[in-house]
């Protein structure tokens, strides 16, 4: 145009360093718009042309150029580049056949667009991209993938890297596996060396790895930013708490090389499979880093140029090992982290990555060749040639961003087959320059991201659906409550009617006198009136009329309540049903009489209501006493009361695990899960039971659902990892354990932060108390405590120093220290508590000015406990639910865990598992090791007391229990420790407070009248106070409730009989028969009577001579033996042995030992006799 006309512009389209075409020259309208209507095309050709991979990592450039007005006498037009726009073609690889976008026009340097007029908008281009047909089908899109690698920076680089002096090109490269033997080289060049002083800003845009971009703003990839993140959430090598300080210094103060480049690689379905297989085979991938000098091209001196090519070499060759395994975790699409840079050594690289050659060394000459001034941004292009003349003939092919797959062929033969390195290479045996990376602590930060996860993860909706399928909701049972309730109501009506008739008869006979409850009444008079009334009812026929009146109501209860309409199969079944029906009818009769009885006739008997928590406690007590039948009754009663409470089902399931009823435990846990499908513990327990039943597929669904519902659950991730270990899935096992460790680390950090906040608030409160305390001014040593060497979360109390000093004075005679503020050496653990308290007080006073934070350990042990590991947390959960079958597998991991190892808690858990199996020897061995590691742990002494109690050594158990309760901090099961200690005291000492004892025992009997031990103690109390009739009744109940095999109750009955001084009977053997054929009667006889056949009752017989089968026959009347023992009879020693061998009475261990010794002695004598008889014929033949 001519000077003064409106601007005239045109657009040039470029792709892959090729100009696609120019638009026509369009005059810009007064509104500032121009319609180019320009169309250009790109020909895709997999065979050596533009491929799908080019579309992935190369954008389309649109350059807007202004045609300047012609000056006078000017022949050629002059142009001015205004700006450049970038179009990302990635949507075409996502299955789209067309898309429209508005891209900003970035001004180039010196363009008028750099200084826009006020109020004007940024220039932009409307672009539409379309293809004649989709490049990929839906199946190809779902099976293919897109790999994005972002190289951010290298921090803490060696000090020899200087920004002044010869220019250097800092290059990082890695190889991406593809189909076949070839790999795709991905190279990042032109790193910017920066001095320290400030941290890199976030978020900051990612840049194209493309050279010769005119507009600075066009370097940025649209909608792609580096956002950073916390160190703890990274997947690299420097994500531990101890690395935080070093990374802060390196990323703020020290030198760094910044790239901020993102390179992409399209992976077709076969490449995805190869990529996944390579990760599984080679967990670590090498990412190489090097430095190459930038060489200027001399003008007109080709000879000099060739010489420079040969002398140019790369230096500072290092390698970072990137763990790519997390990309095989389910649902993981991205890993980002910091990785140490090591010197590149062939042997080390091959050992770790199985990589045979280096990306840079085997093509290093051409890396230098492409780093001349004309091709500073070009990546590697060609392999090393054996013939230098061939190398001169090859034209340099400059490629933007990264090398093509076909460009990098096999490495040089010299480099592969010979130990002698090529000229200019670093010797392979050592790498002095690369060693500087280690000395400086250099690390690179990079991100690897996939468009789709290599291993898909189940969606939470799918997991919830699968759980529902495994646990279908059960329809409620159709209960015929109406008929049953009506039958019971009719029974109540008949009872009330009959009771009124009997009361009328009584009043007719004896008058309408009302007997007040609690008034003095002659019992003989009442008994006489009762006999007269019974006689009158039987003689008049009213008694039989009442029975007929009540019979129909009872029949309705049998049919409607118990649903019994058919005949019974056996007499035993009939008797059992009659007993159950009788109990129910009597209870309902009492209910009806209480309703119909006048208020002034009713007593003040209080009804004892037990809560759900009380029932749970009773069940736990029955578990500890190994009375599993009674414990099941309590658990079932809780379920009957509140069937919709899932905690009741979980407790009952844990009880079933203790009794090894895995099937019923699974039913309980699944019932709990059906009540709340989002309950984490129910899911975990269902998974544990599925593992025990070897149903691993269901277990995986349960655990995965738990991790989806609560991703921060350490136990869920750990159990999932243990399941993968059982399935030999090492990668997923590593993923689960890593996630569990990360969640535990995050929780520990959060706890520390809360503790720090508590410290600050405590210090403020201490200052106020110091100034305005009600007890006057307080010294600094009394308001803040210092602790050195403590690790882990601590409990903070503001004014605890005074409590420590007062407690130490009050407990100066105690055997245990009140609390310990510093970890002690092993030698200090042997010192007395007074010395420890003095030393700790002295340390506290001398260190009062060293730290302003107040710390106190939450445990009083002298030896510091290590922080809990993911496996120990899981062990605690499994022990709580009695999943002992699964604990030993977790204990093995705890032993091998770097953060774990053999600890006091480890040996304590082992001891508890063996104590459940009644393996007392192993239990004692592990408890000794636990005590050696932590002598002041109250749980160790508590479990040791349980060991001695169960093994019968009550003296040692008493000492351990007393030591446990003397600690300041309670053990975890103090309730049962107090119960068993009281049990020992009750056996050893005489009863003094009989009234209080009777009240307590009566209360216990009201709560549970099926406890034989309570009845036994009630009988003893009644004997003490002289109530013989009540004592006899309590005896009868005790003997009635005794069960075979309940050794504790049998011993208690024996102790009770010995305490009963009126007992004068003995159950013994009475000799009968003749000398040649003796036999014994088992009799209950008086002690003073001679053994002449006079006895009270014969209870059995014993034949001492064996029969033809070598058996000695014993006949016992166990019911009568129970009766006489209840009446105070003693057992002779032979009878104790006979009853023990028959299983009725606990057999003393020494009896078994002596019998075994005698049996061995007789067997040895028989063997010697047989050997002697065999040797005699041989001697005779020799003679």
Automatic annotation (TrEMBL):
Cell cycle among keywords: no
Record protein name field: Small ribosomal subunit protein bS16m
Gene Ontology biological process: cilium assembly; cilium movement; translation
Stated family: Belongs to the bacterial ribosomal protein bS16 family.
Region (Disordered) residue spans: 368-427
PROSITE patterns linked: TPR
Principal location: mitochondrion
Chain positions of TPR repeats: 646-679
MF term (GO), any: structural constituent of ribosome
Segments of skewed composition (Basic and acidic residues): 387-405
Gene Ontology cellular component list: extracellular exosome; mitochondrial inner membrane; mitochondrial small ribosomal subunit; motile cilium
Compartments reported by the entry: Mitochondrion
Organism per entry: Microtus ochrogaster (Prairie vole)
Keywords: Cell projection, Cilium, Flagellum, Mitochondrion, Repeat, Ribonucleoprotein, Ribosomal protein, TPR repeat
Keyword Ribonucleoprotein: yes
């Amino acid at each position: 145009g001519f000077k003064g006309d409106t601007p005239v512009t045109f657009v040039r389209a470029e792709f892959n360093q090729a100009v696609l075409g120019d638009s026509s020259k369009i005059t810009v309208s007064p509104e500032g718009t121009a319609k180019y209507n320009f169309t250009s095309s790109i020909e895709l050709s997999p065979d050596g042309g533009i491929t799908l991979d080019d579309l992935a990592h190369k954008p389309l450039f649109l350059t807007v150029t202004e045609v300047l007005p012609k000056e006078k006498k000017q022949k050629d037009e002059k142009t001015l580049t205004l700006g450049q726009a970038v179009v990302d073609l990635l949507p075409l690889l996502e299955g789209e056949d067309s898309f429209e976008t508005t891209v900003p026009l970035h001004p180039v340097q010196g363009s008028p667009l750099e200084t826009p007029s006020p109020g004007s908008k940024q220039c932009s281009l409307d672009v539409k991209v379309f293809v004649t047909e989709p490049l990929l089908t839906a199946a190809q899109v779902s099976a293919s993938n897109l790999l994005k690698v972002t190289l951010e920076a290298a921090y803490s680089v060696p000090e020899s890297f200087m920004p002044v002096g010869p220019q250097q090109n800092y290059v990082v490269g890695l190889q991406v596996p593809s189909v076949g033997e070839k790999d795709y080289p991905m190279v990042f060049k032109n790193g910017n060396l920066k001095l320290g002083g400030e941290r890199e800003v976030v978020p900051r845009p990612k840049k194209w790895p493309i050279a010769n971009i005119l507009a600075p703003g066009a370097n940025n990839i649209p909608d792609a930013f580096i956002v950073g993140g916390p160190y703890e959430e990274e997947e690299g090598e420097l994500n531990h708490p101890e690395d935080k300080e070093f990374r802060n210094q390196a990323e703020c103060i020290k030198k760094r090389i910044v790239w901020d480049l993102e390179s992409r690689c399209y992976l077709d379905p076969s490449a995805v499979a190869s990529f996944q297989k390579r990760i599984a085979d080679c967990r670590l991938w090498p990412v190489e880093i090097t430095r190459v000098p930038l060489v200027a091209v001399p003008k007109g001196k080709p000879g000099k140029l060739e010489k420079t090519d040969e002398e140019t070499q790369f230096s500072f060759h290092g390698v970072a090992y990137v763990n790519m395994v997390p990309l095989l975790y389910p649902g993981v699409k991205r890993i980002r982290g910091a990785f140490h840079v090591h010197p590149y050594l062939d042997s080390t690289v091959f050992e770790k990555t199985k990589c045979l050659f280096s990306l840079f060394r085997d093509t290093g000459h051409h890396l230098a060749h492409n780093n001349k001034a004309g091709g500073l941004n070009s990546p590697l292009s060609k392999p090393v040639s054996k013939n230098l003349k061939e190398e001169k003939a090859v034209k340099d092919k400059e490629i933007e961003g990264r090398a093509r797959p076909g460009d990098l062929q096999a490495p040089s033969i010299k480099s592969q087959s010979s130990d002698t390195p090529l000229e200019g290479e670093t010797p392979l045996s050592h790498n002095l320059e690369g060693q500087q990376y280690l000395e400086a602590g250099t690390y690179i930060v990079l991100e690897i991201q996939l468009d789709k996860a290599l291993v898909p993860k189940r969606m939470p909706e799918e997991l919830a659906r699968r759980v529902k399928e495994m646990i279908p909701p059960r329809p409620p049972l159709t209960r015929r409550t109406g008929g049953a309730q009506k039958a019971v109501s009719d029974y109540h009506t008949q009872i009330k009617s009959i009771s009124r008739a009997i009361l009328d008869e009584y009043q007719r006979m004896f008058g309408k006198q009302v007997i007040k409850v609690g008034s003095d009444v002659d019992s003989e008079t009442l008994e006489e009136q009762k006999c007269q009334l019974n006689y009158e009812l039987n003689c008049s026929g009213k008694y039989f009329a009442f029975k007929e009146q009540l019979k129909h109501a009872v029949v309705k209860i049998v049919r409607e309540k118990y649903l019994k309409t058919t005949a019974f199969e056996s007499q035993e079944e009939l008797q059992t049903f009659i007993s159950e029906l009788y109990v129910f009818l009597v209870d309902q009769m009492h209910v009806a009489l209480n309703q119909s009885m006048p208020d002034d006739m009713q007593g003040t008997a209080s009804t004892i209501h037990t809560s759900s928590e009380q029932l749970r406690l009773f069940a736990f007590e029955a578990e500890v006493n190994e009375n599993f039948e009674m414990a099941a009754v309590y658990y079932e009663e809780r379920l009957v009361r509140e069937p919709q409470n899932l905690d009741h089902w979980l407790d009952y399931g844990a009880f079933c695990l203790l009794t090894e009823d895995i099937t019923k435990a699974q039913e309980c846990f699944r019932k709990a899960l059906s009540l709340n499908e989002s309950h984490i513990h129910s899911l975990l327990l269902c998974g544990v039971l599925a593992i025990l039943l070897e149903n691993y597929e269901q277990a995986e669904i349960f655990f995965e659902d738990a991790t989806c519902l609560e991703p921060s659950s350490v136990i869920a991730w750990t159990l999932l990892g243990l399941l993968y270990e059982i399935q030999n899935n090492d990668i997923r096992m590593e993923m689960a354990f890593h996630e569990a460790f990360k969640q535990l680390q995050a929780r520990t950090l959060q706890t520390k932060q809360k503790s720090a906040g508590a410290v600050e608030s405590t210090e403020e409160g201490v200052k106020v108390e110091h100034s305005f305390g009600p007890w006057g001014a307080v010294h600094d040593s009394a308001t803040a405590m210092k602790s050195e060497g403590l690790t882990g979360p601590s409990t903070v109390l503001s004014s605890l120093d005074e409590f420590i000093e007062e407690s130490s004075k009050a407990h100066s005679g105690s055997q245990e220290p009140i609390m310990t503020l510093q970890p002690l050496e092993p030698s200090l653990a042997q010192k007395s508590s007074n010395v420890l308290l003095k030393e700790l007080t002295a340390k506290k006073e001398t260190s009062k000015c060293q730290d302003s934070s107040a710390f106190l350990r939450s445990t009083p042990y002298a030896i510091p406990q290590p922080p809990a590991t993911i496996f120990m947390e899981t062990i605690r959960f499994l022990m709580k639910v009695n999943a002992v079958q699964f604990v030993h597998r977790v204990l093995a991991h705890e032993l091998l865990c770097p953060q774990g190892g053999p600890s006091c808690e480890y040996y304590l858990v082992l001891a508890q598992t063996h104590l459940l199996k009644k393996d007392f020897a192993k239990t004692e061995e592990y408890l000794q090791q636990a005590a050696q590691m932590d002598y002041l742990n109250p749980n160790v002494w508590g479990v040791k007391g349980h060991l001695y109690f169960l093994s019968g050594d009550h003296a040692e158990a008493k000492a351990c229990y007393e030591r446990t309760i003397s600690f300041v901090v309670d053990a975890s099961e103090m309730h049962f420790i107090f119960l068993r200690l009281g049990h020992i005291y009750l056996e050893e000492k005489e009863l003094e407070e009989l009234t209080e004892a009777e009240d307590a025992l009566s209360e216990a009997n009201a709560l549970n009248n099926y406890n034989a031990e309570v009845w036994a103690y009630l009988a003893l109390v009644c004997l003490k106070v002289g109530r013989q009739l009540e004592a006899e009744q309590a005896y009868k109940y005790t003997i009635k409730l005794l069960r075979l095999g309940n050794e504790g109750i049998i011993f208690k009955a024996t102790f009770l009989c010995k305490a009963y001084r009126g007992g004068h009977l003995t159950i013994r053997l009475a000799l009968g028969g003749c000398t040649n054929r003796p036999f014994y009667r088992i009799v209950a006889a008086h002690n003073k009577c001679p053994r002449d056949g006079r006895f009270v009752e014969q209870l059995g017989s014993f034949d001492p001579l064996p029969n033809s089968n070598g058996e000695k026959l014993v006949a016992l009347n166990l019911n009568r033996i129970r009766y006489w023992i209840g009446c105070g009879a003693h057992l002779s020693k032979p009878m104790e042995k006979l009853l023990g061998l028959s299983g009725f009475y606990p057999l003393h261990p020494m009896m078994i030992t002596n019998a075994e010794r005698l049996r061995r002695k007789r067997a040895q004598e028989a063997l010697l006799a047989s050997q002697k008889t065999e040797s005699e014929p041989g001697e005779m033949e020799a003679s």
